[in-house]
């Protein structure tokens, strides 16, 4: 277990084990504080068990249990007393480390023993977002060199890239999430290749060292005053803003879908908890009709809807049941894939799997009890409503900008962040940058795009802090590994305007044809590249292109 120091006398940790108590003693800690109520989850060690082990190793122990999100003034006072009286250094723990960090910050505010706990709470915790109102009201607005709204791949990678270049920049990341997901892996979860747990880590574990994590939602942007409004009533100020809020999956735009999801054959690889259900449905299905839908653009990973279909067909083919299954692909778009170069290889699989491809067919309603999906289909300029019975329905929802962005001065007419496609700087606010799925750019919304965007934004942010113009630009690169069968992928790599931007020579990976090399890249190489390089600021194959230099 890695203990995370907050100051010279206090460190925090997620739930510890009895072995961690011994490790804490070995590292020189003299006291342990438990901030977790007993019985929060099955198998959790009780405070008495931890106390006994601590005593065995000569450590003092205090139990200050706090229900998540309900810290009160009395809890802060108790934490302050414990920190003052227990032998230092002290290790505090809770389920994830968040409550302990929260209480540490409040205790410091209570005793005035430190300057601005809001500005020093680290990735182990969540600032004072969930603290008691009477304590929170005493905290002044904080100001940072850089405020990043969004702790997904775009926000984390950008922060890490900035700090790799200048560790003295003060950065706040605003995001309420407890977990961080490698979403490109959900396609493989749906095919039984990955376990869902392989795609999830605690948000605290990916937060770059040295940033202030405010674990609270952003509710508004005031770029004219260089401020971000938070859900707990605070505002924070910045010199430069990086807006990386992602997008919202608008399940409600398909009538009846929210009630139908997760049962009766209705699933989606676009949700962590549903991707395993996709795999169960595919394994169980021996005959009948399987429908796969794709909504109008923009969506994250435009190839994901058909990836789910190809991998399902591959499993059915291996099981010998594919001839008994009627597979339909309902795509709201007018083409199978937006870059024509890759379509011939995909069409070979459409034919081989016997897929009935229906373009300009948009899913508008789901009746889960009757197992009927309703589509609006367009043909020769005329539209008609068509109902299709199903045994399995894989749905991809419409995807929209978050309301706090769409209703803010940052938004373009689309509702997404209005940025220059090359520099990723806002078109009206020179100290605002946007990237990732929430940016109003025409590139494919993929993790590979973010991997290229983050270093560009990082160097441009540092230039903005120095009063200079952007120094790097982005060519629209995105990658979509189209999993056409288990073991083979069509690796689509392209930039703005559909320009092909292959990373590897054709003799190694021919992106226009299905290859095993591309599958190896997707299954074995990209996940560690994501966790250990991209989110850590290591810009492997992603060095920012300097404006004016040859590509």
UniProtKB/TrEMBL annotation:
Cofactor(s) recorded in Swiss-Prot or TrEMBL: FAD
Taxonomy, superkingdom: Bacteria
Keyword terms of this UniProt record: FAD, Flavoprotein, Oxidoreductase, Quinone, Transit peptide
Record InterPro entries: BLH_phosphatase-like (IPR005939), FAD/NAD-bd_sf (IPR036188), FAD/NAD-binding_dom (IPR023753), Prot-tyrosine_phosphatase-like (IPR029021), Sulphide_quinone_reductase (IPR015904)
Segments forming domain FAD/NAD(P)-binding: 144-259
Gene3D superfamilies hit by this protein: FAD/NAD(P)-binding domain, Protein tyrosine phosphatase superfamily
GO molecular function: FAD binding; hydrolase activity; quinone binding; sulfide:quinone oxidoreductase activity
Residue ranges of every copy of the Beta-lactamase hydrolase-like protein phosphatase-like domain listed in the record: 5-109
Example GO BP: sulfide oxidation, using sulfide:quinone oxidoreductase
Pfam families registered for this protein in UniProt: BLH_phosphatase, Pyr_redox_2
Keyword Cell membrane recorded: no
Protein name according to UniProt: NAD(FAD)-dependent dehydrogenase
Taxonomic source organism: Novosphingobium lindaniclasticum LE124
Upper classification of the organism: Bacteria, Pseudomonadati, Pseudomonadota, Alphaproteobacteria, Sphingomonadales
